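This section describes the prediction task in plain terms. A model, or a person checking by hand, is given the sequence of a single protein chain and must write out its three-dimensional structure as a string of tokens. No templates, partner chains or ligands are provided. The sample shown here is typical of the held-out split.
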Amino acid sequence: MPDLDPEDEKIIILARSTRARIQAEEGAAVRDTDGRTYAAATVDLPSFKLTALQAAVAAAVSSGAEGLEAAAVVTSEVMIKGASVQAVHDLTPSAPILRADPSGAVQEILR
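The expected answer:
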């Protein structure tokens, strides 16, 4: 993977720490067009389920974000769930999504 922008490294670190803090399946973080960041983990309740990216996008939107610069998800899965990609692209179709493994190493960048 190419060298990452420091701001992209930051959202990977936030996603990774969020995942580790509650030992979730996934951790995610997004950066809005104002430079604010939002982090979230997988929500898995009997009546309510969100991927980590869906939760991070929801946090951004509920805080007034009008667009995203980038998103990151830390997961042991080899693919990002379609619902996660759709949540990011619903807000900003061109926002890159970085997929990192649990160590924080970027495995893929979806554009």
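For orientation: Helices lie at 6-22, 52-62, 82-91.
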